[in-house]
Please model this.
Amino acid sequence: MKRILLLSAALFLLGSAGFSQKMKIRSEKPEDHVLSIMSYNIRHGKGMDNKVDFARIAKEISLVGPDVVALQEVDKETARIGGVDALKTIARLSGDYAAFFASAMDYDGGKYGNAILTKIPPVTSTYYPLPGTEEPRVLLLLEFEDFYLGSIHLSLDQDSRIASCRKLAQIAKKGIKKEKLFFLAGDFNLEPNSMEMRILAEDFAILSAYEIKTFPSDEPNRTLDYVLVYKGGAGKSFLKKLEKGELGMVSWVQPEKTASDHRPIFTLIYKGENIVTEKF
Model:
């Protein structure tokens, strides 16, 4: 059974006063919808029960129906997932999504990297290699008519993460059109009070509900997953609109305990005054 609540807010953030039910949040009026972003580290589809099940991942995506989905730890035709294309399978099961993949490295007879699912046609697609001592890392970047979205999974090594944070700032300053918003979403492998996040905070603002823990999914004790926006260019006026209540924003973490070792995060940006929350 699901319950539907109507909430009014100019700038609304679901904080750490937790909830146990899964939710779908949308603008009350379709014309008030601006953009919805989801990020999910899917651990190649392997759940906390050690079963590879792409249908569970797709169910979490289709539950909220985001415009764009940043995915991390995506396998393509590796032996450990039976040689299938995980991204195409998830895209098909999730609904009407186009799929884009960037390989970070060859692995187990196939490829391994990041992906983006999108309902919005992109203008361009590119990728940037990122530092990674223990394994190669990659940023997949899609350009859309009004914004950019990058899907990212940073290294477990701190020096590599610091170098990646500085490279992300360079990309934001030199590699994007200033009239477009630049969102980053993914598993950053760092916590909100870390030195790396302080470096990122010089150029990026956190939009997601970082007070809510995302890892490990069964009993989360830390936040590793975020949605960020670049503070320069179009981001400057965007953040001012949020502050003034000219735009609304809501972000939350789905309490999914089994499908992956990370919980999926979601951020909705909207106009108007009301949002509808459906609790399942």
